[in-house]
Design goal:
- The complex is a heterodimer of chains A (about 375) and B (about 280).
- Chain A has two domains: about 20-245, P-loop containing nucleotide triphosphate hydrolases (Rossmann fold, 3-Layer(aba) Sandwich); about 250-375, RNA polymerase II/Efflux pump adaptor protein, barrel-sandwich hybrid domain (OB fold (Dihydrolipoamide Acetyltransferase, E2P), Beta Barrel), CATH 2.40.50.
- Chain A is about 25% helix and about 35% strand.
- Chain A is built from nine helices and 19 strands.
- Chain A has a six-stranded mixed β-sheet, with helices on both faces. A five-stranded antiparallel β-sheet of chain A has the order 13-12-11-14-19.
- By secondary structure, chain B is mainly α.
- The longest helix of chain B is centred in the N-terminal third of the chain and has 34 residues, at about 65-95.
- The chains are: A alpha+beta (about 375), B mainly alpha (about 280).
- The interface between A and B is medium-sized, with 30 and 17 residues.
């Protein structure tokens, strides 16, 4: 099978109201998890709205999978409550929570055909034969796997197995879909296709609430409405994806969510009514989007590599000068590394001047104030 | 134009490595196959070396042989079934119900394999015998004149002892098979709405079938040939093939009859061993 998109046939078509309705929001109320004296998830309070995709991202051991497993019912919170819709599910076993889950290694039942895998949850819930047949057809149609219903999992590729795992999870009409690093076992090309297909799938299932755990920021940025960044068992930032990317509240978020250049600056003029402050970096006086910085504050000016330009234009009113150190051509993009007063600065350029400067040359860089964000030097760990 | 071609005879190449097969083969022949041939010869030939089919047919149709065969098969099948049930339940608990010390318990159960089989029978005599702890306790508590529990000296006693001794032979391959079951499958099944019994039935057991067949056939093989437990319990009327062979050869000095029964016993054992190897091969053992 090609990496065809999930088809337009929606598993929601049969019973749309059931999933779309309210009652699929997830609420963590001061949920903590500990193994003995070792706390792996510090009290977490977080809401996932109905129909929202929340991506939890963070490095290994940051507590993101623990949070997901607490929702699934595999980890019992040491304190706090978890609600799905109006139901407090903290004390419910996993089989009574009404969820769907897809994990990294697919976890398909190897001795069952694809159609039996998809039907498993429905049979467990006592659905009648006619409904099961209808749902199998619908769920496999949704993920473009109708032609593979009679195959065994071992006869499918990794990407196909993951589609079946998604179909199996969707067939039971879950209130919430839990995705635990679902694409990590796939190679890069298939992963890119699958991210786009999951995005398309969610557009066809707008009521489906998804908790998506990943360590891959690209998956999170592509799919999520909101992102929670985890570190050491705590949420270190949480908010709408674009907002978190454009205005990271702390250094860890800035560096974990995409690449970031962080120039140390001293605020020269406090944030004005338009939300901009001026700040000094060496001899350069720069303007950046701020929060509540005051004159004299030590800050970091966050600029994404793709927002730096080697050529000036009317928007790019900020200018810094660096010494070109490295040039890496990667086809679509060229990456440049410069030294700006001792701070390494990366530039990702789609277009470069015809005469590219040699390493060691002084190169001016231009960027727009609106593409920057000031963040406190000591915040964000 | 023809050309003279010199064909050189292939040089004889000594492969001394191949000779290593001789010592073990000779040892096996001497200690194992030769005695087997002697038994078979004794079973099918009379003193003059002539085939004695009539005697073979007489023994195979005799009541004592048929009773022993029925006892052997029914006791070993019942004991194996008991081992499968107990072993499966224990393995499920040890593998999937986390509790502190589960590894220690598994190893403790393993030690049964190291103990001589009659030891369990001896322990059973202390526990369930006429003057054992259970009967003594019941007689004292309820002022009974006779021991109320009287199963030990019957086929049930043999079965219970064999279940106790041979359950670890089921437990070990099952634990190995369960350790290979992807926990993600169990969790996925649970999230999809399956309760524990359905998960055991539809997710875990299918993965454990080769282990069950391998452990079960090994258990069947061992119980078919069990001698010590049956002899030690001395249950009235419970004569199995190994006990019958012992009785005919040692007590009655009827060697030909003993050898005929031994050949049947060997055929039964080899059949079961073949089943065990087939299943173990599928398990990857």
């Amino acid at each position: 099978m090609s990496a065809a998109a999930f088809t337009g046939t929606s598993v929601m078509d049969i019973d749309a109201a059931k999933v779309r309705g309210a009652g699929s929001n997830v609420h963590f109320d001061k949920v903590s998890v500990a193994y003995g004296a070792h706390v792996v998830l510090h009290p977490l309070t977080l809401d996932i709205a109905p129909g929202e995709i929340l991506a939890m991202i963070g490095p290994s051991g940051s507590g993101k999978t623990t949070a997901l497993r607490a929702v699934a019912g595999f980890v019992r919170p040491a304190s706090g409550r978890i609600r799905i819709g109006a139901t407090d599910v903290t004390d419910l076993p996993p089989y009574e929570r009404g969820l769907g889950m897809v994990v990294q290694n697919y976890a398909l039942f190897p001795h069952m055909r694809v159609e039996d895998n998809v039907a498993f949850g429905l049979r467990a819930q006592g659905a009648d034969k006619a409904l099961i047949g209808e749902r199998i057809k619908d769920a496999l149609g949704t993920v473009g796997m109708s032609a593979y219903a009679r195959r065994y999992p071992r006869e499918l590729s990794g990407g196909q197995q993951q589609r079946v795992a998604i179909a199996r999870a969707l067939a039971v009409r879950p209130r919430v879909l839990l995705l635990d690093e679902p694409l990590s076992a796939l190679d890069a090309q298939i992963r890119r296709n699958m991210v786009e297909e999951i995005a398309r799938l969610h557009r066809s299932l707008p009521g489906l609430t998804i908790l998506y755990v990943t360590h891959d920021q690209t998956e999170a940025l592509t799919l999520a409405d909101k992102i929670a960044i985890m570190r050491d068992g705590r949420v270190c930032s949480h908010g709408p994806t674009t907002e978190l990317y454009r205005r990271p509240p702390n250094r860890f978020t800035a560096e974990f969510l995409g690449r970031a250049n962080l120039l140390p600056v001293t605020v020269a003029e406090a944030v004005g009514p338009k939300g901009f402050a001026t700040a000094r970096h060496g001899d350069a006086l720069l303007t950046g989007a701020g929060r509540n910085e005051k004159a004299g504050d030590k800050s970091l000016l966050c600029i994404r590599p793709q927002h730096l330009s080697l050529t000036a234009d009317s928007d790019h009113t900020n200018r810094i000068v660096g010494t070109l150190q490295e040039v890496h051509w990667q086809g679509e993009l060229t990456h440049l590394v410069l030294d700006v007063d001792g701070t390494p600065v990366r530039v990702s350029a789609t277009r470069l001047p015809i005469a590219l400067p040699e390493p060691g040359a002084k190169v001016p860089l231009f960027f727009a104030p609106a593409d920057t964000s000031l963040l406190p030097e000591d915040a964000g760990v | 134009m023809s050309e003279a071609v010199t064909l050189r005879a292939p040089a004889f190449r000594r492969e001394p490595g191949k000779l290593w097969i001789v010592p073990p083969a000779a040892l096996l022949a001497l200690l194992f196959f030769y005695p087997l041939v002697l038994i078979a010869r004794q079973a099918f030939l009379d003193d003059r070396g002539v085939a004695n089919v009539a005697e073979v047919i007489r023994v195979l149709h005799s009541r004592f042989f048929l009773n022993a065969l029925i006892n052997t098969v029914s006791i070993s099948v019942a004991a194996t079934a008991g081992c499968l049930v107990v072993g499966l339940v224990l393995a499920l608990i040890l593998a999937f119900v986390p509790f502190p010390g589960s590894g220690f318990i598994a190893r403790l159960i393993d030690t049964f394999i190291a103990l001589p089989t009659f030891l369990v029978t001896l322990a059973f005599t202390f526990l369930y015998g006429s003057a054992g702890m259970l009967n003594a306790g019941l007689m004292e508590t309820f002022s009974l004149p006779l021991p109320p529990v009287d199963f030990l000296y019957s086929a049930w006693g043999v079965i219970l002892a064999e279940v106790t001794v041979y359950t670890p032979f089921i437990l070990r391959p099952l634990l190995a098979a369960f350790s290979l079951v992807d926990r993600g499958q169990i969790e996925a099944a649970s999230v999809l709405g399956a309760r524990p019994f359905r998960i055991v039935r539809q997710v875990i057991l299918p993965a454990a079938i080769p282990a069950l067949i391998a452990g079960g056939s090994l258990c069947l093989l061992l119980t078919v040939n069990e001698f010590g437990i049956v002899l030690f319990i001395g249950a009235k009327g419970v004569i199995t093939l190994p006990l019958l062979i012992y009785g005919k050869a040692i007590q009655e000095s009827a060697y030909q009859v003993a050898c005929i029964i031994a050949v049947v016993n060997i055929a039964l054992s080899l059949g079961l061993f073949g089943l065990y190897r087939f299943a173990a091969g599928r398990l990857g053992a």
